[in-house]
Amino acid sequence: MVHRVPVPNSHLVVVDGVEVDSYAVGRANLVLTAVTAADGLGIVILRLEVFTKYVVDAPRGRQQLVVPAQGQRGYGDWCKVAMDVGYHADVVAVAPDVVYADITGFGPTGPASNRRVYDTAIQAASGLVASQTGINDDQPRLLRQLIADKVTAYTACQAITAALFARERGQGGQHLELSMLDACIAFLFVDAADHEIVLDGDHSGPQCVAANNTPLELADGFATIAVPGDLEFHGVAAAFGVDTSDPDLATLHDRVRHPEKARAVHRAVREASPTTTIAEAEVALAARGVPFGIVRAVDEVVTDPQVLANELFEEHTHPAAGRIRQHRPPTRFHGTPAGLRERSAPTIGQHTDEVVAGTGRGDRLDELRSAGVIG
Description:
Blueprint: E1 11-15, E2 18-25, E3 28-35, E4 43-49, E5 53-57, E6 64-68, H1 78-83, H2 87-91, E7 99-104, H3 119-126, H4 147-171, E8 174-179, H5 180-189, H6 194-197, E9 216-218, E10 221-225, H7 230-239, H8 252-257, H9 259-272, H10 278-287, E11 292-294, H11 298-301, H12 305-310, E12 313-318, E13 322-327, H13 352-361, H14 365-370
Parallel strand pairs: 4-7, 7-8
Antiparallel strand pairs: 1-2, 2-3, 3-4, 5-6, 9-10, 10-11, 12-13
Helix pairs in contact: 3-5, 4-5
């Protein structure tokens, strides 16, 4: 069964059991995808694609259909257009079991709710940029990846999965609201906002337990180490030939009472480490049970012996892009194995003819293309 979510001034396209209502918004299109209950999902996703043509994701095989933009509206109208599709007024009336994922940048209301948003804006507003500072380093730094986008995506997936589980238990569909700002603040506050959580605690130290972490220089690279307790403190010192036999350094409690002596050991380790090679450090640290990681350049990660043992990456040839390396799903499902049904995302319009034919209009492809209905 196909449900139509009525949206005014829309151009309706039927795609493989899914009806998609689209708006042209300046150079963008607002896309509403209503997946039917027969597909076992029942998820509505609103998204804004900044292209004059947009790609419609069909539920089977990630098929791609190119649909030309319809008409023109002012770019500033996109928020108004998005609000034309309401959960209670439009969606739940025709598909009450739908899980409606409603994702915004700063939130649905409030002084920043109407602002345009990108990953960098949320990194700044959530505290992620400021949290990259440390002792003798007060310069805010962006995380050089689209962390806000990815954290929001993971949070949304978890929320949708939980809502689907609730529906399986008879709770029905529901409206989920998530902002990028809330997702990233929640991510940060787990371990990097101690003063803002324990409000009456001792705030003399840094906000984050990891604030003092800096790579350790070696003769031919860098390593990171973790020193949470006595074993690691004495182990890392021994690995680099630093003496810790002083009774004032014996235990964590002793070192808390004699912080200058403890800091002197850390300085001595950092002074000695540049004469030690990566290979030597790996052997010495591993033998003493010190948690460590060798800093790998991104292009070195794929050939790391442990990564190879994990069999994380695979390669294939893409018809347009050439050789492609990508990772498998990182979690191994031993009961219900997960894999990529298609190794690469389809090229734009790759399945247009196939999808349209699947709607019973295969004999009208030339007509629809001439009329501008499909690209």
